[in-house]
Design a protein that fits this description.
The complex is a heterodimer. Chain A is mainly alpha-helical. Helix content of chain A is 73%, strand content 2%. In chain A, α1 runs antiparallel to α10, α5 crosses α6 and α10 crosses α11. Chain B has 2 domains: 167 residues, P-loop containing nucleotide triphosphate hydrolases (Rossmann fold), CATH 3.40.50.300; 64 residues, no CATH class. Classes of the chains: A mainly alpha, B alpha/beta.
């Protein structure tokens, strides 16, 4: 029994990270139908910038804030310099641009920072918490709280605020959005800034547990993307549940089968689910009028 | 008193002159129609006035201010709204939500208040909903308000677009073939609606192929042919103008000739 609980706890912790990455995907996807494959690089930037700022003597909370702001700025630049000039191009082209941006950011991080693994201290110490015979790092609670908080804010943002609805309207029909007074470029800028900030927050929260390095982004983007697809692209609740589910499947496979197979089992299960529900667990079925 | 004036407007598409040196003006409460054979440049003209295309020549003056080439969202703020010949609808939203998007330009509150669903936000939202419902009633779509927009017929979507454009409380409304795809009864309803809106003081610029409707409701008609203005004036004068008759009969099919008569 403590074994199962242990797997569940670590699964939820890892899953919360995936959920945070998936939530970042949600926002940009909702504004533009674009899947931003540079999302993982924001996670990397969050961790790396925090580490180097902290090493330079800046207090950790301030360093984290700095990293999140820097990532948001890079997100805005990515939109202004790479996505906006290609406006009108098919979504597939824009997605390829984000892959290019991801390679560029990774290369730059390797040059600006270094190729080492880095870690900064946990926020609330490293003494494991005991829960019915299983253990959990306090930092894990920070990660879970972060994912839940971001989910709640995003969900309320899309459900209640006009700005959130304006973001959705822009993805739905850009011309119609501008007709009713929405500036589509502002909506894109906003969604890149906030997505990047969410990614960086994930990096800040998870680095004390998993460490960070310049090439962390690829794996993060893939897992986050899988989680978002599993839950239903564009739905905040889907991103949260998809992320947690993916983390749990991985942890249980690693525990009961073998950690070698954890990725394979997770992806096979995702494939099975997507065969049955191509729109994801929470996604709405798309019906085109013909 | 002029609300909108267009002067020397022109645009080329890769060497082809789509619209050249077109000018006219519209006053509040006035209905001005732009007619012409297919391909005359009517929709291109609309696209330049409403900021969808950047004009290469000429000026658009709205209420005394030069608004040439301003983005559609800026023009919406200044009181210019439009509908499209081939529809620009939020397909994945409900009919009511589509109408509500238009209301929000004038009914916006602080994000934080909306996020927390404060009483002021709920009140604002109820007002928006009521106003959108009222507009849907005016265009005869109140009963379809909860349906997804993509499930509506073409004629109904045209009316939904008009409702959304009216929700912006425009001072000038550009309607690109509002009666296309509507049956005789619906056309007459739209006809009445346009007259009513004009009576409330809104300037209306209309592109329409239903000549009976154009002749009936327009005060002033601008005739385009191959991108140039060939005539303008009162409906009776324009329909007798030899150049207009030639443009329709000389180069176009019998169908267009019928339309002028």
């Amino acid at each position: 029994m403590p074994e199962l609980l242990q797997y569940l706890l670590s699964g939820v912790t890892v899953g919360a990270v995936y959920a945070l990455v998936a939530l970042g995907f949600t926002l940009i996807y909702n504004a533009s139908d674009v899947v931003n494959f540079a999302q993982g690089e924001f996670v990397m930037l969050g961790g790396m910038i925090t580490f180097f700022a902290w090493q330079a003597g800046i207090p950790l909370p301030l360093a984290a804030l700095l990293a999140i702001l820097a990532a948001a700025t890079i997100g805005v630049l990515l939109n202004k310099l790479a996505i906006e000039p290609a406006r009108g191009a098919p979504v597939a082209s824009l997605i390829i641009i984000t892959i290019g941006a991801s390679i560029f950011l990774r290369g730059s991080a390797q040059l600006v920072f270094d190729k080492q693994l880095h870690r900064f201290p946990s926020f609330s110490g490293d003494d494991p918490l005991r829960v019915f015979g299983a253990t959990m790092l306090p930092q894990g609670l920070w990660v879970i709280a972060g994912a839940v908080a971001v989910f709640l804010v995003l969900w309320l943002f899309f459900a209640r605020t006009l700005t959130g609805k304006a973001v959705l309207a822009t993805a739905n029909n850009r011309i119609a959005a501008s007709l009713v007074g929405i500036n589509p470029n502002h909506m894109m800028t906003l969604s890149f800034a906030v997505s990047a900030a969410i990614g960086a927050l994930a990096g800040v929260l998870v680095t004390p547990i998993t460490l960070t390095s310049y090439d962390l982004g690829v794996a993060m983007a893939l897992k986050g993307f899988a989680a978002a697809m599993l839950g239903g692209m564009g739905v905040p609740a889907g991103a949260l549940v998809g992320g947690l589910l993916l983390g749990l499947i991985e942890a249980l496979t690693a525990g009961y089968v073998s950690s070698v197979y954890k990725d394979a089992v997770a992806f096979i299960l995702i494939l099975v689910i997507l065969f049955a529900r191509p729109q994801g667990l929470f996604g709405r079925k798309a019906m085109d009028r013909v | 008193m002029t609300l909108l004036s267009v002067d020397g407007l022109g645009i080329d598409f890769g060497g082809l002159t789509a619209v050249n040196d077109v000018g006219f003006s519209v006053s509040p409460g006035e209905i001005v129609s732009v007619i012409g054979p297919n391909g005359a440049g009517k929709t291109t003209l609309f696209n330049m006035i409403s900021g969808v295309y950047q004009p290469q020549r000429g000026k658009v003056i709205l209420d005394g201010a030069d608004v040439t080439g301003l983005a559609p969202n800026r023009l919406a703020e200044r009181g210019l709204s439009r509908t499209f010949q081939n529809l620009q609808i939020f397909q994945r939203m409900s009919v009511l939500e589509n109408a509500m998007t238009g209301c929000h330009l004038r009914e916006r509150g602080p994000v934080l208040s909306d996020l927390l669903s404060l009483p002021s936000s709920r009140r604002r939202s109820a007002v928006t909903r009521a106003r959108a419902t009222e507009l849907l009633e005016r265009v005869g779509l109140a009963r379809a308000s909860e349906r997804e927009a993509s499930s509506l017929s073409y004629g109904a979507l045209k009316r939904l677009e008009i409702a959304r454009a009216l929700a912006l409380e425009p001072r000038i409304l550009l309607l690109d073939e509002p009666a296309a795809g509507c049956n005789a009864v619906e056309t007459e309803e739209i006809d009445h609606l346009i007259a009513e809106v004009a009576k409330s003081g809104v300037a209306i610029l209309l592109v329409e192929h239903d000549m009976k409707m154009v002749m009936r409701i327009s005060r002033h008609i601008v005739v385009l042919d191959r991108g140039e203005k060939i005539a303008e004036g009162a409906p009776a004068a324009v329909s007798r103008d030899p150049k207009v008759i030639e443009a329709y009969l000389g180069t176009q099919s019998v169908e267009a000739g019928d339309a002028v008569g």
